[in-house]
Amino acid sequence: MNAIDTKMIDLAQFKSVRGTVRVNESMSAHTSWKVGGPARYFFEPADEADIACFLAELDLDIPVLWIGLGSNLLVRDGGYPGAVIAGHRGLRDLVMTDQGVSAQSGVSCARLSRFANKHCLTGAEFFSGIPGTVGGALRMNAGAFGSETWQHVQKVRLIDRSGKISEESADRFSADYRQVNLDQGRWFTGATFQFEQSEGANGVAVVRSLLEERGKRQPIGQASAGSVFKNPPGDFAARLIESAGLKGVRSGGASVSLQHANFIVNDQSASAEDIETLITRIQQAVYQHSEIRLETEVRIVGEHR
Questions:
Q1: For residue 4, what is the DSSP state?
Q2: From the CB of residue 103, how many other CB atoms can be counted at a distance below 10 Å?
Q3: CA 267, CA 274: separation in Å to the nearest integer?
Q4: At residue 182, what are phi and psi to the nearest 5 degrees?
């Protein structure tokens, strides 16, 4: 997709929107891999009601992409020919209720973990190891250190392509390893989580220990998108990649991390094409070596340049 002529796009259609709508916005500034071409629209909402207005006024033939902190996402160099909603900008409410911890989808997983610990709740510590937001964690049943998001979900709040908001019980959804059955054209705007009350539980020490473990195993501080591939049944993607001799292998400015083989890092010069080429190369090499087809955990969207 070429750079968009902003004169050809009429922002007046979003007459009820209170947030910010930009055009031709580079996604490299909004993804943890630091790559990605321009989005046709980039929307930073004021709140949930503002998202409803935006969706109601957006032409139905324009695709929609929700993002949080931009982890677990590869936007191709040609950009995204639709509307990107930056949910972490306007969906940041986090409160205690009679039913549990209510978190909007833009709340970072690390913040959710700290909040639960502050209220003497245990079970949320694993969220500290997820480098994304509640919305992303809900959408892919994100997990870390042996726990998964949907183990703690009581109910969710959703919005559809027309802007209609609804609430549903968690038992209406089927969550599996890194996937949840969510109809296309619907997105999570928040959830209520239930954790165990545990007076005296030293959650801070647990979180510190988990983060120290993560720091030893993962390339923290480098531009990456977290785990690139799902673990196949009974095995680990990182082990398979390392066994195929791929640690340190490069494609342009992208390379397989020497610290954790299921991470691809950007040395600040990589393009999205470099990363996608390396992903394909890893899949082919692992299949030739182990006859196992690795599936991507990261989401790849947009158009080639």
A1: P
A2: 28
A3: 11
A4: -125, 125
Query: Is pLDDT above 50 for 7?
Result: no
Nearest to 218 by CA among 260, 172, 163, 254: 260
178 is catalytic: yes
What's domain 92-197's architecture?
A: 2-Layer Sandwich (3.30)
**Phi/psi class of residue 70: alpha, beta or left (left: φ > 0; alpha: ψ in -120 to 50)?**
left
Q: Cα–Cα distance between 115 and 125 in angstroms, integer? A: 10
Is CATH 3.30.750.200 what the domain over 219-301 is classified as, yes or no? no
Q: Which of 92, 111, 178, 299 is catalytic?
A: 178
Of 113, 227, 251, 271, which is the active-site residue? Answer: 227
Q: Is the pTM of this model over 0.85?
A: yes
pLDDT, one tens digit per residue, over 116-159 is 999 999 999 999 989 899 999 999 999 988 899 999 999 999 99
Look up the CATH architecture of domain 6-89: 2-Layer Sandwich (3.30)
DSSP string, 242-267: HHTT-TT-EETTEEE-SS-TT-EEE-
- List 25, 48, 125, 297, catalytic entry: 297
Domain ranges across the chain: 6-89, 92-197, 219-301
Residues 6+ apart with CB under 8 A from 87: 45, 51, 66, 67, 68, 105, 106, 133, 135, 187, 189
pLDDT of residue 27: 98
Asked if 227 is an active-site residue, the reply is yes
Q: Which two tokens stand for residue 219?
A: 């390339």
